Amino acid sequence: MARVPLEDLPSNLVPSNDLPLELSTINVVPEDDLPSSILKKERSMAEKFGRGLSSIARGAAVPLTGAVAGGALAGPAGAIAGGLALPAAELLTKSLNLALPDKYDIPSPSAQVEKGLTKLGFPNPETQVERALQVGGGALGGVSGQIGALGQLAKTATSPVGRGIAQTLSQQPARQVAAALPVGATSQYVAEETGSPTLGLAAGVAAGIPFAIGAKGTLQAPTVQELKGQAGQQYKFAEDVGAIFKQKPYNQFASNLEKTLAKEGLDKTLQPRVFAALERIKDSQNYAYFQKEKGVSLENMEILRRIGQAAGSSTDASERRLASILVDNLDDFVEKAQPSQLIKGSSEAVSALTDARALWKRAKKTEIIDDLVASADMRATANFSQSGVENALRRKLVNLADNPKALRTFNKEEQNAIKVAAKGGPVQNLLRFIGKLAPTGIVSGGGSVGLGYLAGGPIGAIGLPLVGGVARQGATQLGLRNVEQLRNRLATGNAPIPQVSTRSLIGARGIAAPIINPISGLLNEGQQ
To answer: How far apart are CA 434 and CA 436, in angstroms?
Structure first.
């Protein structure tokens, strides 16, 4: 005979102990005659599976909906905010309820959302497994909604710090998404089973470890296309915000620049390009845009800078030096601009323009190395070996290091890095020397085997070519690594590429899952 839970019995029934003895053994209702609302039959595996999927969908619905709505309203940042809207609302509500009298308690937003989900047709979780799957679904929906938005912010955020954080959090997206459901579900199940949220957190972190095995924590340096895209975003932002320098501070700057260049030996005849650029800067107040705006806009300051850079393309070393001084002074004036020097706009526009310039420079420098790699790869294709690529790359870098005009694109530190990559380090060069013993052809192979035989008999005849081959491969790998490091330094602006452990990242999400998922706490409260 089936057992009926006490809470499912009608309220007008009385305990059997209070009934007369004869009634307790009479009027027993057969199981088949009990109403379906009272009798709960064991569900089939198909039903359990379907309810499990529904529980996951119920949990994922809210963060995914918030991310989609937020993304539609405010782009990637809005998507992240939308996915975290319910946890933020729950936290705010609990904080307010602590301060307010009991009669003014604000209903839990999470509880209201749960009621809404039930009305929409999502089954209410009834078992411990279904509750765990709902929390896991919430984690899955949260990570899925955030990971795409973080990837976009890593490329488009106006702040370098923001881009770095987004890039760190968006790495290994497939592993993060795959880990979300088991991490969230395990954390909820163990917390409910043991009654200890701390053990639940630990179990969630442990569940995420397998998904981090074999993952590399080093972030990739940005591509040329990504750098140009970020620069374009910054230029657009600077243009939209706008900034116009007042006439008085601009004229003072032009006067100081003229004095500086005169002290450096500027001569109209000897350095005509720099002289012409200076005259253009001094006479800017006579142009229509100056008279209309009563000052010089950030956009026109950029035009003046390009004029100064054009003067720096002179073949005369003294003119290039003076052009560099002119451009540096222009940059200092713009980058150190104070709000009091602006008619309108803000220092944010100046910062955006400065960042855009730096990004564009990094893109152009990185593009030079990428082109060298592509050219070397094409030339070495006939060799069908990495050593052919490395040798071709080294020759290309030597040519770059010997070209003063091309080398002027890079600063002193970057020039030194190019020369080091071209020459190779002592270990690489030693391995390259030993690698000459590798049998790469009939002549070299015969010579290597013969020399080895003379030195050590049959064992030497086999061992020496092997040592040469290993050394040659080692030199090749070191050379390719040096070029890659050079390329990454240029792409990141000589900043080290941040490293983050994927295990730590997934573990952090495991800790955060029940904290930022208010449904978890609500479900646990319902079981107490």
So the answer is: 5
Please report whether residue 131 resides in a domain. yes
Query: 52 and 188 share a domain?
Result: yes
As given in the structure block, the two tokens for residue 47 are 């039903």
CA distances from 206 to 179, 501, 526 (A): 11, 15, 26
296 forms beta bridges with 245
In whole angstroms, give the CA distance from residue 242 to residue 73: 24
With respect to residue 355, please indicate whether it lies within any of the assigned structural domains: no
Quick one: 51 and 171 in the same domain?
A: yes
Picking from 345, 372, 401, the residue at the C-terminal end of a domain is 345
336/400 same-domain check: no
What length does the chain have?
A: 528
Shared domain check, 143 and 54: yes
Does residue 129 lie within any of the structural domains?
A: yes
Distance between CA atoms of residues 446 and 465, nearest Å? 10
Whether residue 397 sits in one domain with residue 333: no
Provide the number of structural domains found in the chain.
3
Burial of 15-42, coded b for 16+ CB within 10 Å and e otherwise, reads: eeeeeeeeeeeeeeeeeeeeeeeeeeee
Residue 471 lies in a domain: yes
Query: Digits of tens for pLDDT over the chain (528 positions)?
Result: 445 555 555 555 555 555 554 444 445 556 555 555 555 567 788 888 888 898 888 888 888 888 888 888 888 888 888 777 877 777 788 778 788 887 777 887 778 888 888 888 888 888 888 888 888 888 888 888 887 777 777 666 656 556 666 766 777 778 888 888 888 888 888 888 888 878 877 887 788 878 777 666 555 678 888 888 888 888 777 767 767 788 888 889 999 999 999 999 999 999 999 999 999 998 876 554 554 556 787 778 888 888 998 998 888 999 999 999 999 898 888 878 777 887 766 677 777 778 888 888 888 888 888 888 887 777 655 554 545 677 788 888 888 888 887 888 888 888 888 888 888 878 777 777 776 666 665 545 555 656 655 666 676 666 666 766 677 777 777 888 888 888 888 888 765 555 455 555 555 655 555 555 555 544 444 554
Give the residue from 319, 345, 371 where a domain finishes: 345
Q: What would the two tokens of residue 383 be?
A: 């060799």
What dihedral angle (degrees, nearest 10) is formed by the CA atoms of 56, 59, 64, 65? 120
Indicate the helix (H) or strand (E) that contains 256: helix 247-263
| Strand-by-strand arrangement of the 295-297 sheet | 295-297, 243-246, 342-345
Domain that holds residue 171: 46-219+512-526
Whether 466 and 378 map to the same domain: the answer is: yes
Record the pTM: 0.49
Helix ranges (H only) for 312-424 are 317-335, 347-379, 386-401, 404-407, 412-423
Cα 315 to Cα 139, 318, 409, 415, distances in angstroms = 62, 9, 14, 20
Same domain for 62 and 202, yes or no, is yes
Indicate if 78 and 210 belong to the same structural domain: yes
Distance CA 10, CA 1 (A): 18
